[in-house]
Every structure is written in C-alpha cells, then in structure tokens.
Amino acid sequence: MTTPAPQPFHQRTEAALADAHLNQTLRRVTARVLDSRTAGLERLPASDDWRDHARRIRAHTLAHLDRYLDEFVTNVEARGGHVHYARTAEDAVTYVTDLARARGLTKAVKSKSMISEEIHLNDHLERAGLQVVETDLGEWVVQLAQDHPSHVIMPIIHKSASDVADLFRRTLGATDEEVADVPAMTKLARARLRPEFLSADLGISGVNFGVAGTGTLCICTNEGNGRLVTTLPRVHVAMMGIERLVPDIPSLGTVLQVLARSATGQNLTVYTNLLTGPRRPDEFDGPEELHVVLVDNGRSTVLGSTEAEILYCIRCGACLNVCPVYQQIGGHAYGSVYPGPVGAVLTPALWGQDEWTDLPHASSLCGACREVCPVRIDIPRMLLTLRAKGVDEGRAPSWIGQGLAMFRRVAARPWLFGAAGRAAAFGTRLLASRGWIRRLPGPLAGWTASRDFPVMAGDSFQDRWKKRQTGKPGGPQS
Amino acid sequence: MSPEARQQMRDILRTALKTAVLPGATPDAPGGYHRTDAEPADLLARFTTELETVGGAVHVPPAIDADHVAALIADIAGDTASRHALLWDDAHLPVPGVANALVARGFVISRQEADAGPGPARDALATATVGVTGADAMLAETGSLVLVSGPGRGRLASLLPPIHVALVERTRLVRSLPDLLLTRPDLAEAGSNLICITGPSRTADIEHTLSRGVHGPGEVHVILV
Ligand code: SF4
Fold first, then answer.
1. Which of A134, A139, A144, A278 is nearest to A196 (CA)?
2. Which of A198, A230, A360, A372 is the most buried (most CB within 10 A)?
3. B9 lies in some domain
4. Rounded to whole angstroms, how far apart are CA atoms A259 and A74?
5. Atom 6, ligand 1: which residue's CA is nearest?
6. What is the ipTM of this complex?
7. Range of the domain at B166
8. The domain spanning residue B86 has which CATH number?
C-alpha cells in the first residue's frame, strides 16, 4: 500500500506549469525561506563543521541500525512505553486501529507527520469509526480542503492567504472579520481547535528523532500543537520511520543545531519537545500510554541498496526550496508524499521504479540540493544511478527508449546521418519565426511543450569540419 | 515487543546492511559535536537579544521578592478582569510566596492536580490567562527556556495559557542546547518531558507570514531573579 502514481508525471507537470498563481506563490515563498536559511546558517559559527558532524552521526547510525533500533526498543520499554515494528503500511495502520478499538478511543488529534500521510493513516482511522482532527494549521487547511500537502515543511505552500480565507468561509462558516488577515485566521484556528485538544483521547504525532540510548522521542514544532497532542490525550501514538534514530542525547543536540536553521532559518523550532516514556506515577500530566510505531514500509529495502544514503535525510525541506524544478512545478506534480529532490530519490527507492520511473528525471542535476543539504546527501549521484537502473532494466520513460533506438539506427549510417541533418535544417527553417520554433510537429511536440527549439544551422558540423580542414593546411588549431 | 518480532526486525536489518552503500559511515559513534569557538562574553546580553528577536521579553524586578515579582506578573497580565494564573508548586519556583502575593493582587490561582482527562477540572485550567513556571536552563544563543517536567511542575502551565511567565535565576544560563545536552544529557530523562521553548508559539504556514499564539502561548516573558 504505497501511494500509486496518479496521472503520468508529464501531465501533472504541465498542469502545474500552466498555473500562474501557483508559480508566483512558489517562487515568492521559496525565495523567502532560502534567504532565511542562509541567514540562519551564517549566524552559526563553523556551520560547515556542524553539518559534517551531523552527517557523520546519521551515516554511523544507519550503518548500525540493527543495534540502535534494538537499543531504542529496550529503552522505550524500560520507561513503560510500547514499541511495534511495522514491516508494511498495512501492518502499521492495523496496529493503530486495533489499539483504538481495544481502548475504545473515539477522537484523535494529530500533529504533523509525513509518515502518516505515507500510510494513509487518517483514512483508515476514519473507516474504523474515529474522528480525526489535524491540528497543525497547514495540515488542518489541507484536511478541510480535502487536499494533499505539497511540501515537507510547509504543507500549504501552494495556497495563498485568500485561498485559505475562502476555505474557512466555506467550510467553517467563518465571518469576514475572522478571516480578515493571517493573524485573524490564526486566532480562529486556536479557538476552533482548542476544544478538540481538550476532549481527544488519542494523540498521534510524527517523530523527528528517536534516541537509542534513552528511548527519547524528539518532536519539533512551532505552533505548540505537537505539545498538546503529546500531553492531553490519554494515549499517545508516535509514528516513526525506522531510520530516524540518533545514538545518544549529545548527538541529538548536534542534529538539532542544523535542522531548524536549514528548514526555516530559525535557530531552533519554537518547541523542541523531548519525550521519554509516558507520564510517570508522580507527574500531573502527560499520556498514560505511549506507543511507538516503527514504520519500515520499504525503508529496509532502501537501506540494502545503492540509495541508502537518502536515509540520512533529516527532512528539513531545504533541497525542495532550492530546486529549480520544484520551484516551477510545486510538490503535487511529483505525485508522492515526498516531493522535490529528496522525493525524486526516496519515492522510487522505497516503492519501486515500476510506478515511479519518471521521478529521477525530474531534475536538471544542477547540484543545488547537495549544496544546501545539512547532512550533505549526494542526491545527484543517486538520481543518476536510478536513471541508469531504469534504462538498463528497460523502464526508462518510453520517449527516451524510442528516441535512442531511432538515433542508434541513423547514427550508425553516415550517409543517413548527413541526410537527416540537412532535412532537419531545412524543416526547422520552415517552422521557425525569428530563429525559434514554438511548436515542433508530431511526436516532437513534447520537446517544445516546455521550451522553444532553435532553427538548425544550414550546414552541418561535418560540412564545416571538412571546409575548415581544407581552408587551413596546418590542420585544426586551438 | 515480542522476542520473535524483535528477532524478525534484527534479521531484516542485518540482511539489508550487508549490501548497504553508506558513504561516510564510521565504526565508532561520533557523539555530539565538540565546538571550539569561544563562549559569548555576556551570556545574559545574548539571551536577551535572542529572546527579543523571536518576540519574547526579559524583565528585571526592582527587588527580588514575592511582592515585586507578583507586581511584574500583574503588569504583564494587564487587564484586571482576566487575572487567572496557573502556577507550578511553590517548591519549584525560585521565589517563595508568589502565589499568595498574586492572590493579594486579585488573581485567581489554579494548581494542577493529577490530570484526569476531559472534564470540568481540565476545562477550568484551560481558562487561565497566565502560566507561571520556573526553568532548568536559559539558552543564550537561541533565547530558549528549558523546562523538565516532574511532580509539582506540570507541562500545562507553559502550554495552555496565552501568556507564559518564567521565573529564572541568572545562574541557569548555558550557551546553547547542544552545549546543555553534551554536559547534562541526564536532564533529557529526568522527567517524562523536557521542553525547550524558543519564544512564543508561531506559525508561518500561510504564505510564510508570521503569526503568533496559534496553539501555545502568544507571549513569553522571563523574569530574572
Ligand atoms: S535531503 Fe537533505 S536537504 Fe533534502 S530534506 Fe533531506 S536533509 Fe533536507
């Protein structure tokens, strides 16, 4: 049960590119966040050394994941928590829905969790009869709009303030005053969601990091919903990817030093929440029960592959913001919960290239993602490996396969190659206006859907090479 | 987790690790980063600047006693109609007698009992307008407060009310969160919850426009004692 790719990638991309409103919003917001990120890292002395060290921590942890997960389970249990290893998405949702049934839980409040998007947890809980309320402002908007998040950090980057105001008016019956500006809408969210927190009996959160040595969960949020979700309901279920571990508390300090700065440019998120077990007997608040669901759902397969490095990711979102492709098409066009450069590697690595062949091609390989990544993941390297695998296994997008086959036939025959070149030069002159072609004919139209094509030179490189040889007796000079 | 499930998990991971390509992995745990840059000379000045940058405030009472602290809290709370404070137990506040001094200034005081779930007791706590707590550390480089939960020091006082006031001794200043977690890793497990609070609750979800107080307190004040 992964997310199946909906329409073909190029169709989704075209739709996104045609959406001028989306393009504007994306460009404005990603530029602003990138500026904040640069400032955030500049404020940190020796930020490059911190990043190198954070990478070392992630690499070491992944290389010993069997040991650290084992230690983590021992320590969560020692503090009175429960741990479940869910091999598949089905396994994970079944554990949570069974738990809800067994405890007679009726209302869940959720803080942001990519992994519950990944396994469609909400749908399953609702089908099991629970009321599920997303409480992160962005995720709440997504839920009310029956939409999907389009960014790992900023789920509604694709919506403008007036989109949200319209939505609140339509779905909540909000007055004009209540949606007058962003602070007013924030106040409305507080007022509407507070009673949900106070009455829910199940709190569901994601996890930024688990600490093997102590069984601690670290959850970073800005709004405070993460604290409410993990404090008020009597049962807390934490959904966590199996790769999200660090060995010990000091290592946690190091990765936190680069996470928020890379994500939003903040020094730290407003709430850096460390949870070690459920409420203790002498404490006044906190959940009575804590369950950690360790979700595999393809991660162990990725670990055993050439793309294992993508599991170092700490989900800061910086590679999305900096990616020229993401900036143009936004998150939805990728069709996966994990968009952008990280998603272009992670999605096919997790759930197979059969369905996700196109994604590794959704990149210009400019290397900007590797530059900004706080743990220096070499995304371009893995995109290339995945592309090559796709071609080798005959799963390259069909346009590449057909084009290459035809090129091979033509290029193997010099006379045909020359003739084809001259014909093309003639043809392009017929189609062009002012040296550029807006729309190529037939199957070539795909090329010009997103770019223009230049008129080809009248004489070919071969022709010019011959002329040059004869004109300069000394041969070619550089 | 059953022993079989644990064995299954181990087996799956060990098999995967045989073929994993993990550039940069070292056999020994790297531990936390040991920084070499010098501490800021004036940690308090840095703390104040950073907290103000994220929208919080630092106050110094003219004298350190319950009455002066209560006067400051009353000032911060403003409007007399909404004087309802949720406090940590006296034993965990660095200045004794603050609760009584607040009562003398017309405050209604709530104390946390063991939270019994949804119901009138919890709803009553949720109407408090000011939460008063201590703190285990102040972090200079980020303007953060670190609070460890425990008996008499509930999480809700720094979470439910729209205003959070922390009474903290200057000696609790530490350079940064990584520094604290490197030197005092035990703090992370001292209670079921260690919360590091960096300014007022905020959201930037809508068009990256900053807005405060969405779920947690919209105001964070530190009173130095
Ligand atoms: S791959 Fe790197 S830059 Fe991208 S989200 Fe993950 S940690 Fe951030």
1. A134
2. A230
3. no
4. 27
5. A313
6. 0.97
7. 42-224
8. 3.40.50.10420
pLDDT of residue B156: 96
| Residue B10 domain-assigned (yes or no) | no
Low-confidence ranges of chain B (pLDDT < 70): 80-81
Nearest to A231 among B18, B32, B155 (CB): B155
> Which of A42-51, A291-300, A466-475, B168-177 comes out lowest in average pLDDT?
A466-475
Is B46 a member of any domain?
Answer: yes
Tell me the nearest-neighbour CA distance from A44 into chain B, angstroms. Answer: 9
Mean pLDDT, chain A, integer? 86
Number of domains in chain B: 1
A399 pLDDT above the threshold of 60: no
Q: How many CA atoms lie within 13 A of A395 on its CB side?
A: 17
Name beta bridge partners: A205.
Answer: A238
Quote the mean pLDDT of chain B.
95
Residue B21 counted as domain residue: no
- Whether residues B214 and A257 touch (CB distance < 8 A) is answered with no
What is the rounded end-to-end Cα distance, in angstroms, of chain A?
Answer: 59
- Best interface-test mutation with B: which of A95, A271, A290 has the largest number of B CBs within 10 A? A271
Contacts of B17 in chain A (CB under 8 A): 63, 65-66, 303-304
E strand residue ranges, A119-181: 131-134
Of residues B69 and A39, more confidently modeled: B69
DSSP state for residue B201 in the 8-state scheme: -
Domains of chain A listed by start with CATH number: 44-297 (3.40.50.10420), 398-470 (no CATH)
